[in-house]
Write a structure and sequence with these properties.
The chain has helices at 2-12, 20-30, 34-55, 59-100. The chain is an all-alpha fold and 101 residues long.
C-alpha cells in the first residue's frame, strides 16, 4: 500500500521521487532475497520515468536514482551479513549446550 501511495505521489509531483531511497530499505526488509532486489529495480525505473516525464530526461535524473539504488543494495547486503553471522553463532551455541548436557 505504501508503495502504491509513493507511486501516485511521484506520478503527480517530481518531489515524490526523492522518497524512493527510504522505500528501497523497506523493500529489502519486507521482501527478502530477489524479491527485494526486483522491487528496487522496478521502483528505480518508475522514479526515472516519472522524473523524466515531469522535468525532462537528464543525466542527473537517471544517475541519481541509480546511485541511490546501488547504495541501498550495498547497505542492505552489508547489514544482512552480521545478522546471518549472529544467527549462525546462536545456532552453534545452542548445539554446543545441547551436546554438553
Amino acid at each position: 500500500m505504501l508503495t502504491v501511495l509513493w507511486a501516485v505521489l511521484t506520478w503527480l509531483s517530481p518531489e515524490g521521487a526523492y522518497l524512493v531511497f527510504p522505500l528501497f530499505f523497506l523493500c529489502l526488509h519486507v521482501l527478502p532475497g530477489r524479491g527485494g532486489v526486483a522491487a528496487i529495480v522496478l521502483a528505480t525505473a518508475f522514479a526515472i520515468v516519472a522524473l523524466g516525464l515531469h522535468l525532462g530526461f537528464s543525466v542527473g535524473g537517471v544517475i541519481g536514482p541509480l546511485v541511490g539504488a546501488g547504495v541501498a543494495l550495498l547497505i542492505g547486503l552489508a547489514y544482512r551479513a552480521p545478522t546471518r553471522e549472529a544467527q549462525e553463532r546462536e545456532r552453534l551455541l545452542a548445539e554446543l549446550i545441547r551436546t554438553r548436557q
